Amino acid sequence: MVASSFFSQLHSKSSQLTPYLRGYQGEVALNAVIPQQDNQAVIEALFSQLEQDHPEAGNAYWLTRTWSLLCWQPVYLAFISVYQLKSVPPLASMVQYVSDNFISGYQFQRHTVTQGGVKALIECAGRELRALLDDYREQMATWTRIRPGFADHLLGDVVMSCLLNAHQSGELDEASLRAHCQWWLEACQLPLSLANTLFHAPISSEIIQIRKSCCLVYKCHGRGLCGNCPRHEDNKKRLSQ
């Protein structure tokens, strides 16, 4: 696939998935998280905005939300690229835009693409994601405590959610899903045990996800537990069966 065609299609497909996942071109705008640069001020500002918006939620929520926001766009783009466009962009060069208490919008500093078989593409995407997100975490670790295991479990939950979405959309049948779980987890250097967060519901037998980690949104006023939260009573019962 020609690079210009790839990025045009990526922008189209990502914005169709959600308008928050919008691709940009041209000069990098202000308030961006830029790979291999000092992003501490921008990320700390996002953390501080979450603290101001939800003072009742506490540090654990502000940290969890900040990290989750940094992860979601790169992972979603990796899955769109591998399964719909059969190529991988240079995710490690991806710029992300911060707007108040959210991250929405992306841009690539390099416009090359990698092609190959699906397993090779997953391996490439995993390397790129790891390079990008390790850089974020290492910068955050200079001003807050963010354990690698904590970060990996949250990242793994996003990866597993995208795998489930790929299955539900018909991109992966159940047999392929299990194999691809292992490929993605290995490629992203994540615990293979995260594959166990996808399993058959007892009655419907449909595949569902119970996350490894809680996003802690229930600590915000007026919010409750997510349907796939491990703290949810229904999910505690499922896990005990």
From TrEMBL:
UniProt name for this protein: Siderophore ferric iron reductase, AHA_1954 family
Coiled-coil residue windows: none
InterPro entries: FCR-like, FhuF_C
Domain Ferric siderophore reductase C-terminal, residue spans: 211-231
Organism: Vibrio xiamenensis
GO molecular-function terms, A-Z: 2 iron, 2 sulfur cluster binding
Source domain of life: Bacteria
